[in-house]
TrEMBL record:
Residues 108-159 form the RNA polymerase sigma factor 70 region 4 type domain. Belongs to the sigma-70 factor family. ECF subfamily. Keywords: Sigma factor, Transcription, Transcription regulation. GO terms for biological process: DNA-templated transcription initiation. This is RNA polymerase, sigma subunit, ECF family. It comes from Krasilnikoviella flava. Residues 16-84 form the RNA polymerase sigma-70 region domain.
Amino acid sequence: MPVPEPPDHEARFTALFESTHRPLLAYAVRRVADPGDAADVVAEAFLVAWRRIEDVPAGTDARPWMFGVARRVLANHHRGSRRRLALADRLRAEVVETAPPPDRDAGDIEQALARLGDEDQELLRLVAWEQLARDEIALVLGVSRATVRVRLHRARRRLADQLAALAAADDVPRVQRVVPTGHVISGWAPARPGTEEA
């Protein structure tokens, strides 16, 4: 009886890269200050994928699996950045500014989003920016679909409350700010099919 040939790891990895590298790069660019750091995050994520190619799910589950890997790499990146910049932050805190910082206009949603907790922000961004459905978000975050449904409902309610508070205070500028990467921070992409499912 012939021995089956081992799977072509290189072909699987190439197919994975071709189908996910652009959305992963967009995911990372939106979450780091320097686009060069985004490239490093994506490269590290694909290094993990290469080492664990047997663990990569088949079909459409590969995309959210890669988002989950990138999310963990990004968390490590942020922790490292905080350590590297600790001294600079201390020095900046001691500097007395004689002039106020420049006004940075932000859209309604961006300003309201910034008032939410990190988990709410990430969940809403996965829906709006990455256009992931609930089952995909569950895979990215490592939680159940039911948990995503509850958290998403609460995050949207908190976002709506913040938007209402900003409108009531009449302190919301009506200008969209474009960051150097070319992304409009307050622009929200249309949801993919399945994102708004009950």
